[in-house]
C-alpha cells in the first residue's frame, strides 16, 4: 500500500521508517527545512539505546503534490500545526484515503473531516517516547512503541485492516480499537493533566510523586478532565482516575511531558490544545476547572516559544 | 525613644533611616554580613528616583546585646527568618517593649508572644516598594511609604502612641488601627493571591490584567482566601473581593510581587507563608482551595532558592 507520513518528526519518522524498511509499502515522508535536507542526503536514521537503523534512500519531499493520492496518510504533527498540515494533505487524498491522526489532543479528527470531507478521519494513538534529536535523526528512548488505531464509527474497514497488517509486518505492536473515541479521550485526560503538573512545577513527575500538594493538584486535574469528558458524553473506563493516579505515581521519577521539554527548549507549546481545551469545554458546560485553569494560565506566557 | 530595627532590609532600613534622621530617637540597626559592613563604613543610603539621603554614622550591629532593652523593636525580616529573628530579640526586650511585626503574612504576632511572652506583639503593615539594591543601599521605587500599626487588642497604648508620633515627626504617613487583625488579613489575602498569580505566570500584573484565564484564577484565589479568613473568624470589609480586583486591575502593568523578584533572582521564597499558609488553614477547615494549591505547588520546587 502507499503511505504518506505527514510530519516526519519523532512519531511519523519512526513508524514510517519501520514500514519503509520492513514491508513492501510505498512510504513517502513529508518534511521541511534542515530535517528534509538531512533525510535526502543521509537517509532517515533511528537511534535508540539498543541500536538503530537507517532508511536510505528515503522518499522525502516537502511537496505532497509530488506524492499524489495514497491509501493512508499518517498525520503526525504538533497540535498547533494541524490546520496547516491537513490543508497540505489535499493532493494525497482520494475518495478512499484514510487520514490517521496521531496527536496528543482531541478534535483533530473533526478538523480532518471538516477540511478534507467527511469519512477520511481515522483515530490514532501512538505510545512511544520519540523525538527529533538532530536533522535526519530520530531518538527513541526506551523500547515502548505501540499504536492504537480505529475508525471513528467503530466499524472495521479494509483500508485500516491493510494498514494494521502492514504495521504488524513491520513488527510494530498495533491494536485496532472499536472505541477509539474513548481511548483518545483517556489519553487526552491523562496527558493534559500530566503535561499541566510537570510544566506548572517545571519538574519531572518525580516531584509530584513526592510532594503532596502537587499530587493532590494532579488528581484534581484528572477529576476535572473526567467531568468534562462526561459532559461531552464520552464515558471513560470505570475507575479511570484511580488507575491513572496509580500509573503516574509508578512512573520513573525522571519521566516528563514533551510539553515540559518544549518549555525548557523555548519551543511553542501545545498548551491551548491540552489544558486550554479543557478550560474551553468546561466553560461551555459550566464546569469548574481551577486546576486546568492554573495549568493553562501558567503556560500561557510561554505558548509561542522564545523564538 | 529607643528603637531597634531588627532586619535592616528595604522596609526596616528605610523607615529606620527616616526616624534616625528626622527625630531625636535613639535608632539602632541590626544587620549582617556585607550589608552591615557597608552601613558601618559608608552609612545607610536611601536612593529613590526623586532623590536620596544618607544616615552616617548609623548605629549598626549584628549583636542585639550591644543595644540592650529598647522601647520599640521594628521586626522587618522575611517570613522564613521570623523565628530566628524573634529569638535574637531577647536582649532588646524589657517588660514594656513592643515588637512591631512588619511581615507579608499572618501569624508572626503569635510567634512573638510565644517566644518573648504575651503582650509584646504589635501588628504592623508597611506599604512601600523598597528593597536592598546593594549592600548599604536601599532603593525606593515610586513614592508610596505608609505604615499602619495597632495593638492586637485594639486598645491604644502609650508605647505605640509614642512610636506613631515619632514616625509622624519623621514625615512617615502612619495610621493607628483599632482593627489591625482585619487589616493584616486583608493585606495577606491580597498578597498571597497577587504573589501567587505573578509567580505562577512569571509575569508582572499586566499579563493578568490582559489574560482572562489568569484574571479568573486571581479572582478565584481571592475568594478562596476570603473563605479561609471567614473560617478563621476574621471578617474582612464588605465587598473586599470586588474592591481588590478593581485595585489589582488598575495597578501599573509592570507591578510585580516581591516573591516574583525573589524567584527571578534565585532567592528563597515566602511561598510556604503565603499560598502555603492558605492551603494549610484550608485543610484544617476542610475548605477547597485549588488556586492556592496550584500557586503553592508551582513555587514549591524553588522555595529554597538556587544558592
Automatic annotation (TrEMBL), chains A, B:
Superkingdom of source: Bacteria
Top-level taxonomy: Bacteria, Pseudomonadati, Pseudomonadota, Alphaproteobacteria, Rhodobacterales
Domain Ketopantoate reductase N-terminal per the UniProt entry, residue ranges: 3-153
GO biological process entries: pantothenate biosynthetic process
Function: Catalyzes the NADPH-dependent reduction of ketopantoate into pantoic acid.
Keyword Manganese appears in the UniProt entry: no
Gene3D superfamilies: N-(1-d-carboxylethyl)-l-norvaline Dehydrogenase, domain 2, NAD(P)-binding Rossmann-like Domain
Signal peptide: none
GO MF annotation, one: 2-dehydropantoate 2-reductase activity
Record-stated family: Belongs to the ketopantoate reductase family.
Protein name per its UniProtKB record: 2-dehydropantoate 2-reductase
Keywords for this protein: NADP, Oxidoreductase, Pantothenate biosynthesis
Ranges of residues in domain Ketopantoate reductase C-terminal: 180-301
NCBIfam families tied to this protein: apbA_panE
Known pathway: Cofactor biosynthesis; (R)-pantothenate biosynthesis; (R)-pantoate from 3-methyl-2-oxobutanoate: step 2/2
Record-linked InterPro entries: 6-PGluconate_DH-like_C_sf, 6PGD_dom2, ApbA, KPA_reductase, KPR-Related, KPR_N, NAD(P)-bd_dom_sf
Pfam families for this protein: ApbA, ApbA_C
Annotated catalysed reactions: (R)-pantoate + NADP(+) = 2-dehydropantoate + NADPH + H(+)
Its EC number(s): 1.1.1.169
One of the record's GO cellular component terms: cytoplasm
PANTHER family (alphabetical): 2-DEHYDROPANTOATE 2-REDUCTASE, PROBABLE 2-DEHYDROPANTOATE 2-REDUCTASE
Amino acid at each position: 500500500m502507499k503511505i504518506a507520513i505527514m510530519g516526519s518528526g519523532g512519531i511519523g519518522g519512526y513508524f514510517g521508517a519501520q514500514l519503509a524498511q520492513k514491508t513492501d509499502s510505498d512510504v513517502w515522508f513529508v518534511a521541511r527545512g534542515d530535517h528534509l535536507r538531512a533525510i535526502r542526503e543521509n537517509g532517515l536514521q533511528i537511534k535508540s539505546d539498543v541500536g538503530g537503523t537507517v532508511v536510505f534512500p528515503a522518499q522525502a519531499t516537502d511537496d505532497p503534490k509530488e506524492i499524489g493520492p495514497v491509501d493512508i496518510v499518517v498525520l503526525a504533527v504538533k497540535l498547533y500545526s494541524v490546520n496547516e498540515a491537513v490543508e497540505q494533505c489535499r493532493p494525497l487524498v482520494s475518495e478512499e484515503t484514510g487520514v490517521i491522526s496521531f496527536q496528543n489532543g482531541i478534535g483533530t479528527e473533526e478538523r480532518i473531516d471538516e477540511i478534507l470531507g467527511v469519512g477520511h478521519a481515522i483515530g490514532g494513538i501512538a505510545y512511544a517516547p520519540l523525538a527529533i534529536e538532530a536533522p535526519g535523526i530520530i531518538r527513541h528512548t526506551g523500547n515502548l512503541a505501540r499504536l492504537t488505531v480505529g475508525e471513528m464509527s467503530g466499524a472495521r474497514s479494509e483500508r485500516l485492516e491493510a494498514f494494521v497488517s502492514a504495521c504488524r509486518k513491520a513488527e510494530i505492536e498495533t491494536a485496532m480499537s472499536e472505541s477509539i473515541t474513548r481511548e483518545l479521550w483517556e489519553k487526552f485526560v491523562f496527558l493534559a493533566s500530566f503535561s499541566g503538573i510537570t510544566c506548572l512545577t517545571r519538574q519531572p513527575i518525580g516531584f509530584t510523586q513526592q510532594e503532596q500538594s502537587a499530587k493532590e493538584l494532579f488528581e484534581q486535574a484528572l477529576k476535572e478532565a473526567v467531568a468534562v469528558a462526561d459532559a461531552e458524553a464520552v464515558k471513560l473506563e470505570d475507575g479511570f482516575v484511580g488507575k491513572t493516579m496509580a500509573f503516574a505515581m509508578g512512573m520513573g521519577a525522571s519521566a516528563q511531558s514533551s510539553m515540559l521539554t518544549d518549555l525548557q527548549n523555548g519551543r511553542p507549546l501545545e498548551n491551548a490544545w491540552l489544558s486550554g481545551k479543557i478550560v474551553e469545554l468546561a466553560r461551555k458546560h459550566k464546569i469548574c476547572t481551577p486546576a486546568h485553569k492554573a495549568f493553562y494560565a501558567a503556560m500561557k506566557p510561554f505558548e509561542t516559544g522564545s523564538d
